[in-house]
Design brief:
Elements: E1 5-9, H1 13-25, E2 28-32, E3 44-47, E4 50-53, H2 62-70, E5 82-84, E6 89-94, E7 97-101, H3 105-115, H4 120-139, H5 155-163, H6 170-177, H7 181-188, H8 207-215, E8 218-220, H9 225-237, E9 241-243, E10 248-254, E11 257-263, E12 268-270, E13 273-276, H10 280-287, H11 297-302, E14 308-316, E15 326-329, H12 334-343, E16 353-356, E17 371-379, H13 387-405, E18 413-419, H14 421-428, E19 460-462, H15 473-490
Parallel strand pairs: 1-2, 1-13, 2-9, 6-15, 13-19
Antiparallel strand pairs: 3-4, 5-8, 6-7, 10-11, 11-12, 14-17, 14-18, 15-16, 16-17
Bound molecules: flavin-adenine dinucleotide.
Flavin-adenine dinucleotide binds near residues 41, 435 and 473.
Protein backbone atom coordinates (compact mmCIF):
# COMPACT_ATOMS: atom_id res chain seq x y z
CA UNK A 1 0.00 0.00 0.00
CA UNK A 2 1.28 3.49 -0.87
CA UNK A 3 1.22 5.62 2.26
CA UNK A 4 -0.28 9.10 2.05
CA UNK A 5 2.33 11.83 2.42
CA UNK A 6 1.83 14.45 5.13
CA UNK A 7 3.95 17.57 5.38
CA UNK A 8 4.00 19.24 8.79
CA UNK A 9 5.35 22.80 8.94
CA UNK A 10 7.11 23.76 12.19
CA UNK A 11 8.68 21.74 15.00
CA UNK A 12 7.07 23.46 18.01
CA UNK A 13 5.05 21.36 20.48
CA UNK A 14 2.03 21.38 18.16
CA UNK A 15 3.92 20.42 14.99
CA UNK A 16 5.83 17.64 16.75
CA UNK A 17 2.65 16.33 18.35
CA UNK A 18 0.72 16.36 15.04
CA UNK A 19 3.61 14.73 13.15
CA UNK A 20 4.06 11.96 15.73
CA UNK A 21 0.34 11.17 15.95
CA UNK A 22 0.06 11.03 12.15
CA UNK A 23 3.14 8.84 11.71
CA UNK A 24 1.77 6.56 14.44
CA UNK A 25 -1.51 6.30 12.50
CA UNK A 26 0.37 5.17 9.40
CA UNK A 27 1.03 8.28 7.32
CA UNK A 28 4.42 9.04 5.79
CA UNK A 29 5.35 12.25 7.57
CA UNK A 30 7.99 14.87 6.79
CA UNK A 31 8.38 17.79 9.17
CA UNK A 32 9.88 21.02 7.80
CA UNK A 33 11.43 23.42 10.31
CA UNK A 34 12.92 26.79 9.39
CA UNK A 35 15.39 26.89 12.29
CA UNK A 36 18.37 24.60 12.74
CA UNK A 37 17.08 23.16 16.04
CA UNK A 38 13.66 21.87 17.13
CA UNK A 39 11.18 23.24 19.66
CA UNK A 40 10.09 26.60 18.24
CA UNK A 41 9.43 28.96 21.14
CA UNK A 42 10.73 26.24 23.47
CA UNK A 43 14.21 25.98 21.92
CA UNK A 44 17.33 26.08 24.06
CA UNK A 45 20.79 27.52 23.57
CA UNK A 46 24.11 27.08 25.32
CA UNK A 47 26.65 29.80 26.11
CA UNK A 48 29.63 30.03 28.49
CA UNK A 49 28.68 26.73 30.13
CA UNK A 50 25.04 27.79 30.78
CA UNK A 51 22.04 26.08 29.18
CA UNK A 52 19.10 28.45 28.66
CA UNK A 53 15.51 27.44 27.94
CA UNK A 54 14.41 30.15 25.53
CA UNK A 55 10.66 30.21 26.27
CA UNK A 56 8.44 28.19 28.61
CA UNK A 57 9.67 27.55 32.12
CA UNK A 58 6.48 26.49 33.99
CA UNK A 59 5.58 22.80 33.74
CA UNK A 60 1.91 22.64 34.67
CA UNK A 61 -0.76 19.99 34.03
CA UNK A 62 1.54 16.96 34.17
CA UNK A 63 -1.42 14.73 33.29
CA UNK A 64 -1.52 16.25 29.77
CA UNK A 65 2.10 15.24 29.14
CA UNK A 66 1.45 11.78 30.58
CA UNK A 67 -1.56 11.38 28.28
CA UNK A 68 0.53 12.50 25.29
CA UNK A 69 3.23 9.87 25.82
CA UNK A 70 0.67 7.20 26.74
CA UNK A 71 -0.90 7.45 23.25
CA UNK A 72 2.28 5.79 22.01
CA UNK A 73 2.59 3.23 24.80
CA UNK A 74 5.22 5.34 26.55
CA UNK A 75 5.61 7.08 29.87
CA UNK A 76 6.86 10.60 30.57
CA UNK A 77 9.57 8.98 32.70
CA UNK A 78 10.89 7.21 29.58
CA UNK A 79 12.07 10.64 28.39
CA UNK A 80 12.78 12.84 31.42
CA UNK A 81 12.63 12.92 35.21
CA UNK A 82 10.16 15.27 36.81
CA UNK A 83 10.78 17.13 40.04
CA UNK A 84 7.89 18.73 41.94
CA UNK A 85 8.96 22.19 43.10
CA UNK A 86 8.34 23.13 46.72
CA UNK A 87 7.69 25.97 47.18
CA UNK A 88 5.92 26.00 43.84
CA UNK A 89 6.98 29.63 43.42
CA UNK A 90 7.37 32.83 45.37
CA UNK A 91 5.47 36.09 44.99
CA UNK A 92 7.34 39.28 45.82
CA UNK A 93 4.93 41.98 46.99
CA UNK A 94 7.63 44.36 48.23
CA UNK A 95 10.81 44.63 50.28
CA UNK A 96 10.87 41.82 52.88
CA UNK A 97 7.36 40.95 51.72
CA UNK A 98 7.83 37.62 49.95
CA UNK A 99 5.23 34.86 49.88
CA UNK A 100 6.40 31.29 49.26
CA UNK A 101 3.58 29.20 47.81
CA UNK A 102 3.79 25.75 49.41
CA UNK A 103 3.25 22.67 47.25
CA UNK A 104 1.26 20.99 50.01
CA UNK A 105 -2.45 21.86 49.90
CA UNK A 106 -2.94 21.87 53.68
CA UNK A 107 0.04 24.22 54.03
CA UNK A 108 -1.37 26.42 51.30
CA UNK A 109 -4.73 26.57 53.09
CA UNK A 110 -2.92 27.56 56.31
CA UNK A 111 -1.08 30.32 54.46
CA UNK A 112 -4.34 31.77 53.13
CA UNK A 113 -5.96 31.55 56.58
CA UNK A 114 -3.05 33.59 57.97
CA UNK A 115 -3.86 36.36 55.47
CA UNK A 116 -7.66 36.17 55.59
CA UNK A 117 -8.90 34.35 58.70
CA UNK A 118 -11.83 32.03 57.99
CA UNK A 119 -11.09 31.74 54.28
CA UNK A 120 -10.37 27.98 54.39
CA UNK A 121 -13.90 26.71 53.54
CA UNK A 122 -14.15 29.28 50.72
CA UNK A 123 -10.88 28.00 49.30
CA UNK A 124 -12.23 24.44 49.49
CA UNK A 125 -15.35 25.43 47.52
CA UNK A 126 -13.32 27.48 45.00
CA UNK A 127 -11.05 24.48 44.38
CA UNK A 128 -13.99 22.07 44.19
CA UNK A 129 -15.47 24.12 41.35
CA UNK A 130 -12.04 24.50 39.75
CA UNK A 131 -11.54 20.72 39.87
CA UNK A 132 -14.83 20.19 38.06
CA UNK A 133 -13.87 22.74 35.38
CA UNK A 134 -10.48 21.07 34.97
CA UNK A 135 -12.11 17.68 34.53
CA UNK A 136 -14.61 18.83 31.91
CA UNK A 137 -12.31 21.41 30.30
CA UNK A 138 -9.01 19.60 30.03
CA UNK A 139 -10.26 16.06 29.72
CA UNK A 140 -13.05 16.80 27.24
CA UNK A 141 -13.64 20.29 25.79
CA UNK A 142 -10.06 20.96 24.67
CA UNK A 143 -10.07 17.78 22.59
CA UNK A 144 -12.96 19.04 20.43
CA UNK A 145 -11.93 20.45 17.05
CA UNK A 146 -14.47 23.28 17.46
CA UNK A 147 -15.42 23.38 13.80
CA UNK A 148 -19.15 23.49 14.43
CA UNK A 149 -21.52 24.47 17.22
CA UNK A 150 -23.10 21.02 16.86
CA UNK A 151 -20.07 19.55 18.62
CA UNK A 152 -21.33 21.27 21.76
CA UNK A 153 -25.04 20.52 21.31
CA UNK A 154 -25.68 18.00 24.05
CA UNK A 155 -27.89 18.70 27.07
CA UNK A 156 -25.24 17.42 29.47
CA UNK A 157 -22.54 19.60 27.93
CA UNK A 158 -24.82 22.62 28.01
CA UNK A 159 -25.38 22.10 31.74
CA UNK A 160 -21.64 21.57 32.19
CA UNK A 161 -20.88 24.81 30.35
CA UNK A 162 -23.30 26.80 32.49
CA UNK A 163 -21.79 25.27 35.63
CA UNK A 164 -18.38 26.29 34.33
CA UNK A 165 -19.08 30.05 34.39
CA UNK A 166 -18.37 30.69 30.73
CA UNK A 167 -20.10 34.08 30.89
CA UNK A 168 -18.65 35.39 34.13
CA UNK A 169 -15.24 37.02 34.33
CA UNK A 170 -12.47 35.42 36.32
CA UNK A 171 -12.06 38.69 38.19
CA UNK A 172 -15.66 38.63 39.49
CA UNK A 173 -15.46 34.93 40.24
CA UNK A 174 -12.33 35.30 42.41
CA UNK A 175 -13.86 38.23 44.33
CA UNK A 176 -16.90 36.11 45.22
CA UNK A 177 -14.60 33.93 47.32
CA UNK A 178 -11.73 36.14 48.49
CA UNK A 179 -11.41 39.63 49.93
CA UNK A 180 -7.72 40.21 50.69
CA UNK A 181 -5.76 41.85 47.88
CA UNK A 182 -2.80 39.45 48.16
CA UNK A 183 -5.03 36.40 47.79
CA UNK A 184 -6.92 37.97 44.90
CA UNK A 185 -3.63 38.70 43.08
CA UNK A 186 -2.46 35.17 43.73
CA UNK A 187 -5.67 33.65 42.38
CA UNK A 188 -5.70 35.91 39.33
CA UNK A 189 -2.08 35.28 38.40
CA UNK A 190 -2.49 31.95 36.53
CA UNK A 191 -4.82 33.42 33.90
CA UNK A 192 -2.03 35.77 32.83
CA UNK A 193 -0.72 32.64 31.05
CA UNK A 194 -3.82 32.88 28.85
CA UNK A 195 -2.80 36.24 27.50
CA UNK A 196 -5.35 38.60 29.09
CA UNK A 197 -6.25 40.05 32.47
CA UNK A 198 -8.74 38.42 34.81
CA UNK A 199 -11.42 40.98 33.81
CA UNK A 200 -11.43 39.61 30.26
CA UNK A 201 -10.92 35.90 30.88
CA UNK A 202 -13.97 33.68 31.51
CA UNK A 203 -14.22 32.16 34.99
CA UNK A 204 -14.03 28.75 33.30
CA UNK A 205 -10.29 29.26 33.60
CA UNK A 206 -10.24 28.96 37.36
CA UNK A 207 -9.30 25.46 36.18
CA UNK A 208 -5.81 27.00 36.02
CA UNK A 209 -5.94 27.49 39.82
CA UNK A 210 -6.61 23.79 40.17
CA UNK A 211 -3.57 23.14 37.99
CA UNK A 212 -1.51 25.54 40.08
CA UNK A 213 -2.60 24.70 43.62
CA UNK A 214 -3.54 21.03 43.40
CA UNK A 215 -1.62 19.52 40.47
CA UNK A 216 1.51 21.52 41.21
CA UNK A 217 4.50 23.11 39.54
CA UNK A 218 7.02 20.64 38.12
CA UNK A 219 10.40 20.80 36.46
CA UNK A 220 11.96 18.34 33.99
CA UNK A 221 15.54 17.67 35.13
CA UNK A 222 17.87 19.15 32.52
CA UNK A 223 15.36 21.87 31.57
CA UNK A 224 12.10 22.34 29.69
CA UNK A 225 13.89 21.45 26.50
CA UNK A 226 14.06 17.84 27.71
CA UNK A 227 10.37 17.62 26.74
CA UNK A 228 11.26 18.63 23.18
CA UNK A 229 14.17 16.17 23.09
CA UNK A 230 11.81 13.41 24.23
CA UNK A 231 9.21 14.35 21.63
CA UNK A 232 11.78 14.48 18.83
CA UNK A 233 13.14 11.07 19.76
CA UNK A 234 9.59 9.63 19.82
CA UNK A 235 8.75 11.31 16.47
CA UNK A 236 11.86 9.79 14.89
CA UNK A 237 11.05 6.40 16.39
CA UNK A 238 7.66 6.65 14.67
CA UNK A 239 9.40 7.40 11.36
CA UNK A 240 8.92 11.18 11.09
CA UNK A 241 11.58 12.63 8.79
CA UNK A 242 12.59 15.98 10.32
CA UNK A 243 14.28 18.50 8.04
CA UNK A 244 15.89 21.50 9.74
CA UNK A 245 16.88 24.76 7.98
CA UNK A 246 13.88 24.12 5.76
CA UNK A 247 11.89 27.35 5.59
CA UNK A 248 8.61 27.04 3.70
CA UNK A 249 8.01 30.03 1.42
CA UNK A 250 4.86 28.95 -0.40
CA UNK A 251 2.08 26.37 -0.40
CA UNK A 252 1.24 25.53 -4.01
CA UNK A 253 -2.51 24.98 -4.53
CA UNK A 254 -4.14 23.53 -7.66
CA UNK A 255 -7.88 22.87 -8.03
CA UNK A 256 -8.47 23.77 -4.36
CA UNK A 257 -5.94 21.18 -3.24
CA UNK A 258 -2.49 21.83 -1.77
CA UNK A 259 -0.08 19.90 -3.97
CA UNK A 260 3.32 20.82 -2.66
CA UNK A 261 5.36 23.33 -0.70
CA UNK A 262 8.26 25.38 -1.94
CA UNK A 263 11.14 26.18 0.39
CA UNK A 264 13.15 29.42 0.33
CA UNK A 265 16.06 27.33 -0.92
CA UNK A 266 14.05 26.43 -4.05
CA UNK A 267 13.58 22.80 -2.98
CA UNK A 268 10.01 21.50 -3.19
CA UNK A 269 8.08 18.70 -1.43
CA UNK A 270 4.91 16.99 -2.68
CA UNK A 271 2.05 16.45 -0.27
CA UNK A 272 -1.28 14.67 0.05
CA UNK A 273 -2.03 16.58 3.25
CA UNK A 274 -0.43 19.63 4.88
CA UNK A 275 -0.57 20.48 8.59
CA UNK A 276 0.81 23.93 9.34
CA UNK A 277 2.17 24.41 12.86
CA UNK A 278 3.96 27.70 12.14
CA UNK A 279 2.22 30.93 13.28
CA UNK A 280 -1.25 30.90 11.69
CA UNK A 281 -1.07 34.44 10.34
CA UNK A 282 2.26 33.71 8.65
CA UNK A 283 0.95 30.53 6.99
CA UNK A 284 -2.38 32.02 5.93
CA UNK A 285 -1.15 35.42 4.77
CA UNK A 286 2.36 34.69 3.54
CA UNK A 287 2.34 31.14 2.20
CA UNK A 288 -1.02 31.16 0.41
CA UNK A 289 -2.34 33.15 -2.55
CA UNK A 290 -5.07 35.65 -1.45
CA UNK A 291 -7.96 33.56 -2.81
CA UNK A 292 -7.02 30.62 -0.55
CA UNK A 293 -6.63 32.49 2.74
CA UNK A 294 -8.99 31.72 5.62
CA UNK A 295 -8.88 35.31 6.93
CA UNK A 296 -7.96 38.78 5.70
CA UNK A 297 -5.75 41.40 7.36
CA UNK A 298 -8.77 43.24 8.84
CA UNK A 299 -9.68 40.01 10.70
CA UNK A 300 -6.17 39.65 12.06
CA UNK A 301 -6.00 43.28 13.14
CA UNK A 302 -9.12 42.78 15.26
CA UNK A 303 -7.70 39.76 17.12
CA UNK A 304 -6.73 40.24 20.76
CA UNK A 305 -3.16 39.08 20.86
CA UNK A 306 -1.53 37.58 23.93
CA UNK A 307 1.48 39.68 24.95
CA UNK A 308 4.95 39.72 23.52
CA UNK A 309 7.86 39.78 25.99
CA UNK A 310 11.25 41.25 26.68
CA UNK A 311 13.50 38.43 27.87
CA UNK A 312 17.00 38.32 29.33
CA UNK A 313 19.12 35.18 29.52
CA UNK A 314 21.80 35.88 32.11
CA UNK A 315 24.79 33.98 33.48
CA UNK A 316 25.93 35.14 36.94
CA UNK A 317 29.37 34.29 38.37
CA UNK A 318 28.06 33.58 41.90
CA UNK A 319 25.08 31.93 43.60
CA UNK A 320 22.15 34.26 44.21
CA UNK A 321 20.26 34.58 47.49
CA UNK A 322 16.62 35.33 48.37
CA UNK A 323 15.34 33.88 45.10
CA UNK A 324 13.44 30.67 44.30
CA UNK A 325 13.19 28.71 41.07
CA UNK A 326 10.14 30.81 40.01
CA UNK A 327 9.70 34.39 41.29
CA UNK A 328 6.82 36.71 40.42
CA UNK A 329 7.58 40.37 41.09
CA UNK A 330 4.21 41.91 41.95
CA UNK A 331 5.76 44.83 43.82
CA UNK A 332 4.04 47.29 41.45
CA UNK A 333 0.28 47.36 40.72
CA UNK A 334 -0.91 45.25 37.77
CA UNK A 335 -3.46 47.86 36.51
CA UNK A 336 -1.13 50.34 34.75
CA UNK A 337 1.01 47.53 33.30
CA UNK A 338 -2.10 45.72 31.98
CA UNK A 339 -3.27 49.03 30.49
CA UNK A 340 0.11 49.32 28.68
CA UNK A 341 -0.29 45.82 27.29
CA UNK A 342 -3.97 45.67 26.33
CA UNK A 343 -5.63 49.09 26.31
CA UNK A 344 -3.10 51.77 25.36
CA UNK A 345 -0.16 49.76 23.99
CA UNK A 346 3.15 51.26 25.10
CA UNK A 347 6.27 50.37 27.02
CA UNK A 348 5.03 50.25 30.65
CA UNK A 349 6.18 52.83 33.19
CA UNK A 350 6.60 50.33 36.06
CA UNK A 351 6.45 46.79 34.73
CA UNK A 352 5.77 43.66 36.71
CA UNK A 353 8.30 41.00 35.88
CA UNK A 354 9.14 37.35 36.38
CA UNK A 355 12.51 35.83 37.28
CA UNK A 356 13.39 32.17 36.93
CA UNK A 357 16.52 30.65 38.43
CA UNK A 358 16.49 27.00 37.28
CA UNK A 359 20.05 26.42 38.55
CA UNK A 360 18.59 26.50 42.08
CA UNK A 361 16.93 23.15 41.25
CA UNK A 362 19.21 21.86 38.53
CA UNK A 363 23.03 21.98 38.69
CA UNK A 364 23.36 20.97 35.02
CA UNK A 365 22.12 24.31 33.62
CA UNK A 366 24.98 26.44 35.05
CA UNK A 367 28.67 25.88 35.81
CA UNK A 368 29.45 25.09 39.45
CA UNK A 369 29.06 28.05 41.79
CA UNK A 370 27.24 30.10 39.14
CA UNK A 371 23.59 30.92 38.51
CA UNK A 372 21.32 30.76 35.48
CA UNK A 373 18.89 33.70 35.55
CA UNK A 374 15.98 34.26 33.15
CA UNK A 375 13.99 37.51 33.28
CA UNK A 376 10.70 38.19 31.52
CA UNK A 377 8.66 41.39 31.15
CA UNK A 378 5.30 40.94 29.36
CA UNK A 379 4.79 43.67 26.75
CA UNK A 380 2.18 44.69 24.22
CA UNK A 381 2.76 43.13 20.80
CA UNK A 382 3.88 45.33 17.91
CA UNK A 383 5.88 47.86 19.96
CA UNK A 384 9.01 49.59 18.75
CA UNK A 385 11.90 47.40 19.90
CA UNK A 386 15.42 48.82 20.11
CA UNK A 387 18.66 48.06 21.90
CA UNK A 388 18.30 51.31 23.91
CA UNK A 389 14.81 50.37 25.14
CA UNK A 390 15.93 46.87 26.07
CA UNK A 391 18.84 48.29 28.10
CA UNK A 392 16.63 50.88 29.78
CA UNK A 393 14.24 48.15 30.93
CA UNK A 394 17.07 45.86 31.92
CA UNK A 395 18.37 48.46 34.39
CA UNK A 396 14.85 49.34 35.56
CA UNK A 397 14.13 45.76 36.66
CA UNK A 398 17.69 45.09 37.85
CA UNK A 399 17.41 48.10 40.21
CA UNK A 400 14.33 46.47 41.73
CA UNK A 401 15.66 42.92 41.68
CA UNK A 402 18.88 43.94 43.46
CA UNK A 403 17.07 46.08 46.03
CA UNK A 404 14.31 43.57 46.78
CA UNK A 405 16.66 40.60 47.10
CA UNK A 406 19.42 42.61 48.79
CA UNK A 407 22.39 41.81 46.54
CA UNK A 408 24.58 43.07 43.73
CA UNK A 409 23.85 41.16 40.53
CA UNK A 410 24.90 43.45 37.68
CA UNK A 411 28.61 43.40 38.58
CA UNK A 412 28.54 39.59 38.50
CA UNK A 413 27.04 39.09 35.06
CA UNK A 414 29.31 37.07 32.80
CA UNK A 415 26.81 36.37 30.05
CA UNK A 416 23.75 38.34 28.89
CA UNK A 417 21.46 38.08 25.87
CA UNK A 418 18.21 39.93 25.31
CA UNK A 419 15.26 38.80 23.20
CA UNK A 420 12.08 40.69 22.16
CA UNK A 421 9.67 41.53 19.35
CA UNK A 422 12.14 41.65 16.47
CA UNK A 423 13.62 38.27 17.53
CA UNK A 424 10.16 36.66 17.70
CA UNK A 425 9.54 37.97 14.21
CA UNK A 426 12.82 36.86 12.68
CA UNK A 427 12.99 33.48 14.46
CA UNK A 428 9.32 32.40 14.18
CA UNK A 429 7.59 34.83 11.79
CA UNK A 430 5.56 35.85 14.82
CA UNK A 431 2.61 38.12 13.96
CA UNK A 432 3.30 41.52 15.59
CA UNK A 433 6.21 39.87 17.43
CA UNK A 434 3.83 37.93 19.71
CA UNK A 435 5.19 35.47 22.25
CA UNK A 436 2.10 33.43 23.18
CA UNK A 437 -0.29 33.61 20.23
CA UNK A 438 -3.91 34.69 20.72
CA UNK A 439 -5.46 35.61 24.06
CA UNK A 440 -8.10 33.19 25.41
CA UNK A 441 -10.90 35.75 25.69
CA UNK A 442 -14.51 34.57 25.48
CA UNK A 443 -14.76 35.83 21.89
CA UNK A 444 -11.63 33.88 20.98
CA UNK A 445 -12.64 30.55 22.50
CA UNK A 446 -13.49 27.23 20.78
CA UNK A 447 -15.38 27.83 17.50
CA UNK A 448 -14.51 31.54 17.71
CA UNK A 449 -10.81 30.81 17.30
CA UNK A 450 -9.11 30.69 13.87
CA UNK A 451 -10.28 27.39 12.43
CA UNK A 452 -8.00 24.36 12.34
CA UNK A 453 -9.07 23.66 8.75
CA UNK A 454 -8.68 25.82 5.66
CA UNK A 455 -12.14 26.49 4.22
CA UNK A 456 -10.99 26.68 0.59
CA UNK A 457 -8.09 24.25 0.39
CA UNK A 458 -9.47 20.83 1.21
CA UNK A 459 -6.26 19.18 2.46
CA UNK A 460 -4.76 22.05 4.49
CA UNK A 461 -4.98 22.08 8.31
CA UNK A 462 -3.57 24.35 11.01
CA UNK A 463 -2.32 23.55 14.49
CA UNK A 464 -0.61 25.40 17.36
CA UNK A 465 -1.21 28.19 19.80
CA UNK A 466 -3.31 30.34 17.42
CA UNK A 467 -6.00 27.72 16.93
CA UNK A 468 -7.82 25.34 19.28
CA UNK A 469 -7.46 24.91 22.18
CA UNK A 470 -5.09 27.88 22.74
CA UNK A 471 -1.72 29.12 23.99
CA UNK A 472 0.63 27.28 26.35
CA UNK A 473 2.59 24.05 26.19
CA UNK A 474 -0.20 21.61 27.24
CA UNK A 475 -2.75 23.16 24.81
CA UNK A 476 -0.21 23.08 21.97
CA UNK A 477 0.44 19.38 22.60
CA UNK A 478 -3.33 18.78 22.54
CA UNK A 479 -3.72 20.90 19.39
CA UNK A 480 -1.42 18.52 17.49
CA UNK A 481 -3.52 15.56 18.62
CA UNK A 482 -6.82 17.24 17.72
CA UNK A 483 -5.64 18.10 14.21
CA UNK A 484 -4.30 14.57 13.66
CA UNK A 485 -7.74 13.17 14.55
CA UNK A 486 -9.37 15.50 12.00
CA UNK A 487 -6.88 14.45 9.32
CA UNK A 488 -7.58 10.75 9.83
CA UNK A 489 -11.35 11.38 9.93
CA UNK A 490 -11.30 13.18 6.57
CA UNK A 491 -8.54 11.35 4.69
CA UNK A 492 -8.24 7.61 4.27
CA UNK A 493 -4.77 6.29 4.85
C1 LIG B 1 8.91 33.55 26.59
C2 LIG B 1 7.83 32.52 26.63
C3 LIG B 1 7.49 31.94 27.83
C4 LIG B 1 6.47 30.97 27.88
N1 LIG B 1 6.20 30.37 29.08
C5 LIG B 1 5.35 29.31 29.10
C6 LIG B 1 5.28 28.50 30.27
O1 LIG B 1 5.99 28.74 31.24
N2 LIG B 1 4.42 27.43 30.26
C7 LIG B 1 3.64 27.15 29.16
O2 LIG B 1 2.87 26.17 29.19
N3 LIG B 1 3.73 27.90 28.03
C8 LIG B 1 4.58 28.95 27.97
N4 LIG B 1 4.75 29.67 26.82
C9 LIG B 1 3.87 29.37 25.67
C10 LIG B 1 4.35 28.15 24.90
O3 LIG B 1 5.74 28.13 24.83
C11 LIG B 1 3.75 28.19 23.50
O4 LIG B 1 2.34 28.30 23.60
C12 LIG B 1 4.08 26.94 22.68
O5 LIG B 1 5.46 26.64 22.76
C13 LIG B 1 3.65 27.18 21.23
O6 LIG B 1 3.93 26.04 20.47
P1 LIG B 1 3.55 26.01 18.93
O7 LIG B 1 3.95 24.68 18.43
O8 LIG B 1 2.15 26.44 18.72
O9 LIG B 1 4.42 27.18 18.23
P2 LIG B 1 5.98 27.40 18.05
O10 LIG B 1 6.74 26.88 19.19
O11 LIG B 1 6.21 28.81 17.70
O12 LIG B 1 6.34 26.51 16.76
C14 LIG B 1 6.17 26.97 15.45
C15 LIG B 1 7.37 26.50 14.64
O13 LIG B 1 7.16 26.85 13.27
C16 LIG B 1 8.43 27.22 12.71
N5 LIG B 1 8.23 28.02 11.50
C17 LIG B 1 7.78 29.30 11.42
N6 LIG B 1 7.74 29.69 10.12
C18 LIG B 1 8.16 28.63 9.39
C19 LIG B 1 8.34 28.41 8.00
N7 LIG B 1 8.08 29.37 7.09
N8 LIG B 1 8.81 27.21 7.57
C20 LIG B 1 9.08 26.21 8.48
N9 LIG B 1 8.94 26.37 9.81
C21 LIG B 1 8.48 27.57 10.26
C22 LIG B 1 9.07 27.99 13.85
O14 LIG B 1 10.47 28.10 13.68
C23 LIG B 1 8.69 27.15 15.05
O15 LIG B 1 9.65 26.14 15.29
C24 LIG B 1 5.76 30.61 26.71
C25 LIG B 1 6.11 31.20 25.49
C26 LIG B 1 7.14 32.14 25.44
C27 LIG B 1 7.53 32.73 24.12
Amino acid sequence: MVQKKVLVIGSGFAGLSAATHLAHLGYQVTLLEKNSTPGGRARKFEAEGFTFDMGPSWYWMPDVFDTYFSHFGKKTADYYDLIRLDPSYTVVFGEKDFMDIPANLAEFRKLLESIEPGVGPKLDEFLKQAAYKYKVGIQDLVYRPSRSLMEFASPKLLVDMIRMDIFQSMSKHVRKFFKEDKIIRLMEFPVLFLGETAQNIPALYSLMNYADIVLGTWYPAGGMHKIIEGMVSLAEEKGVNIRYDAEVAEIIVKNDKAESVLLNSGESFDADIIVAGADYHHVDSMMLAPEYRNYNEAYWDKRVMAPSSLLFYIGVDKRLKNLRHHNLFFDEPLGPHADAIYTNPRWPEKPLFYASVPSITDPTVAPEGKENLFLLIPLAPDLEDSEELREKYFHMIMDRLEKLTGQDIRNHIIYKRSYAHSDFKSDYHAFKGNAYGLANTLLQTAILKPSLKNKKVKNLYYTGQFTVPGPGVPPSLISGHVVAKEVIKENNL
